Amino acid sequence: MKFVDEYRDAQLAQRMAKAIAEITTQPWTIMEICGGQTHSIIKYGIDQLLPEEVTLIHGPGCPVCVTPVTLIDRAIAIASHPQVILCSFGDMLRVPGTDKDLLSIKAKGADIRIVYSPLDCLKIAQANPESEVVFFGVGFETTAPATALAVYQAKQQQIRNFSLLASHVRVPPAMEAILSSPQCRVQGFLAAGHVCTVMGYTEYEPLVDKYQIPIVVTGFEPVDILQGLYHCIEQLENKTEAVTLDNQYSRSVRREGNLGAQNLMHQVFEVVSRTWRGIGEIPDSGLGLRADYVHWDAEKRFADWIDPNPPVLTTECISGEIMQGVKKPHDCPAFGTRCTPEHPLGAPMVSSEGACAAYYRYRGIESINGRLARGVRVRH
């Protein structure tokens, strides 16, 4: 298949890995932002092809993973009412809240439905006029245009029994939060190609200038990622030239992005601060509905159903450290034992883009054995 098979060419990948080894003269730590990139790296063993001087760490690139517990609890509170049909993507149903998840209340009779597009919710709302249909919308800028379109059409068509519980987040502020942290180990970034397909990459250029760190917009297949790494390391090794933003994913990404999608997002959403699970509040990192769309804002419409003082969650999950690149999944003592996809302690083990899910799926035994080799005792 064009643009897929050619970017999974094993011989080309080996040549790219060899080229990286040839230009690498010192240790470098590079973070990929997207959870899809993380899964490709672990699935295809890209990190194992690289010279030992190159360390890959995984960023907060899974929107399900970064959705805070408070929003999960709000979704559960809203969905618990008998007149509500709550819709979301499949991964969200098993993400732990404070003491339960959406799947557990669905098992007790709540009407919770998996959808593949926010627009599906409008059809459900029209077919069920006696019910309140709430879409629990999560995602980076990649999925925000579809959510914006659903809300826009709901207003245009006056579908008043539809509303949005918004948990959309923006990538550049999260990258700046990582770079400004005292714990930061990142020396270069692979930026998420699908986010930049929508938004372009002008928002990343100030980060390059401010922190003097190379950022390479990168795709998701093995050759994409290896090419992105090559361009990043080449800049790091070349101390005589200023670092720049490179676009490896030029077959999809343009500097200005998709202006039509951006205009729709701007019409429906405004930039707000957002809390990220395990990380905390990041200024200007979220998208919330504008005042013109307040009727379709589930948090405001159903505020009486939501606990204004939610309990503080305590857990041994180290998702925050994993998503900031401070630790890897196999550094968690619970990985693969007390925390599995069937019984997750945190969102990174649930989501199809979560780093813990990737390690468990593709390197479960290897990761557990590696932890045992470092002297961590596993309790069954």
Automatic annotation (TrEMBL):
Coiled coil: none annotated. Keywords: Iron, Metal-binding. Signal peptide: none annotated. Belongs to the HypD family. Pfam families: HypD (PF01924). InterPro entries: Hyd_form_HypD, HypD_1, HypD_2_sf. This is Hydrogenase formation protein HypD. It comes from Roseofilum halophilum BLCC-M91. It comes from the Bacteria.
